[in-house]
């Protein structure tokens, strides 16, 4: 076998995220017709696609919270809102949002997804081969028979309302200027999504990305999903499990959820470019954001008897948001 690259473990984390989404969808926690189209199970005979109840519940709460922040951004932003999803992996949100936008008044601007070329090549192929996925794309070139164009050796796919780009985010502002900016309109409100991505980059590298958004767009917002508190007793167990998979977490040194929110405001952290931010742990999201009726519904799907363990796990993940020039973005 070819010697493995240190980034292979990072790229492999998308498989986990996609498998968790697939499990949560198959068991009825989430409704997402695209999860199975963008994720192909590679499991051995006899192995179950089912994740532990605790993981399914976490995936549900994480998705509900991200969806709520994205919705708050779209309401604040109005016409032509753009979204850039960094380390998007096999994420399905672009297609889910388009389904939802059938009932929304304001048209969306372009949705850009970025990941390593090894992942975008697979995603581009899955999109191009599936009519349900290409059906959402709007052609940038009416004379072309297809609504999208594939380029960069099959690792990039672009349409008028969507783009999938291969790049390493550690390239910072220079990479974003060269490859992402040409696909966006800097006068339009733009949301940065980084769902479980910044922990794999150094704090300086992610600060450079955050700063670029704050400096490039007059009206902008960000939402991130991250781990925190990995230095307490339970956090050290989490960290050990991850390092057994050769995963290093240079950006997972945040002690609290609030510290994840502060990184958007604090210029000492290199990103003093937003003027409003907040954060909630997944446990707080469970108790204050997820509607009671929805909690009741999912409580019937599987037996979850270890509430204390659930609280411990959910208290090590958070959703943090920030905005500039836009009102009421985030979880209230
Ligand atoms: N955001 C997706 C989700 O939540 O379903 C995938 C999350 S997965 C845990 C992390 C993703 O970030 C992987 O797809 C990985 O390849 C990507 N990633 C990590 N570091 C990156 C970098 N420096 N440049 C581009 N992508 C990166």
TrEMBL record:
One of its GO terms (molecular function) is protein C-terminal leucine carboxyl O-methyltransferase activity. Its EC number is 2.1.1.233. InterPro entries: LCMT1, Ppm1/Ppm2/Tcmp, SAM-dependent_MTases_sf. The keyword S-adenosyl-L-methionine applies. It comes from the Eukaryota. Residues 5-14 have a biased composition (Basic and acidic residues). Pfam families: LCM (PF04072). One of its GO terms (biological process) is methylation. It catalyses: [phosphatase 2A protein]-C-terminal L-leucine + S-adenosyl-L-methionine = [phosphatase 2A protein]-C-terminal L-leucine methyl ester + S-adenosyl-L-homocysteine. Keywords: Methyltransferase, S-adenosyl-L-methionine, Transferase. It is an enzyme of class 2 (transferase). The keyword Isomerase does not apply. Signal peptide: none annotated. S-adenosyl-L-methionine binds at residues 62, 87, 168-169, 195. Belongs to the methyltransferase superfamily. LCMT family. Methylates the carboxyl group of the C-terminal leucine residue of protein phosphatase 2A catalytic subunits to form alpha-leucine ester residues. This is Leucine carboxyl methyltransferase 1. The lineage of its organism: Eukaryota, Fungi, Dikarya, Basidiomycota, Agaricomycotina. The gene is PPM1.
């Amino acid at each position: 076998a070819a010697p493995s690259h240190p980034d292979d473990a990072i790229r492999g984390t998308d498989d986990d995220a996609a498998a968790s989404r697939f499990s949560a969808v198959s068991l009825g926690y989430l409704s997402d017709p695209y999860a199975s189209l963008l994720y192909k199970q590679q499991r051995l005979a006899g192995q179950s696609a089912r994740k532990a109840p605790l993981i399914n519940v976490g995936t549900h709460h994480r998705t509900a919270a991200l969806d709520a922040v994205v919705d708050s951004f779209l309401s604040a932003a109005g016409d032509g809102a753009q979204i850039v999803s960094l380390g998007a992996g096999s994420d399905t949100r672009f297609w889910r949002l388009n389904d939802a936008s059938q009932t929304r008044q304001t048209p969306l601007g372009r949705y850009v997804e970025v990941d390593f070329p090894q992942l975008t090549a697979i995603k581009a192929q899955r999109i191009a081969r599936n009519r349900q996925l290409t059906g959402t794309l709007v052609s940038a070139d009416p004379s072309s028979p297809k609504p999208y164009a594939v380029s960069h050796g099959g690792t990039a796919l672009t349409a008028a309302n969507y783009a999938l780009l291969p790049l390493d985010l550690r390239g910072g502002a220079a990479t974003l200027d060269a490859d992402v900016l040409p696909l966006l309109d800097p006068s339009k409100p733009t949301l940065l999504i980084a769902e479980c991505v910044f922990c794999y980059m150094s704090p300086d590298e992610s600060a450079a990305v955050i700063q670029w958004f704050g400096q490039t767009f007059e009206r902008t917002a960000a939402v991130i999903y991250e781990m925190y508190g990995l230095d307490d007793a339970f956090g050290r167990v989490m960290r050990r499990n991850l390092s057994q998979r050769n995963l290093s977490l240079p950006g997972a040194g945040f002690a609290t959820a609030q510290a994840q929110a502060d990184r958007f405001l604090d210029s000492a952290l290199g990103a003093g470019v937003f003027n409003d931010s907040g954060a909630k742990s997944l446990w707080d999201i469970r108790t204050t954001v997820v509607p009671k009726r929805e909690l009741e519904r999912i409580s019937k799907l599987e037996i979850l008897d270890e509430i204390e363990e659930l609280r411990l796990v959910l208290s090590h993940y958070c959703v943090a948001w920030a905005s500039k020039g836009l009102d009421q973005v985030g979880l209230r």
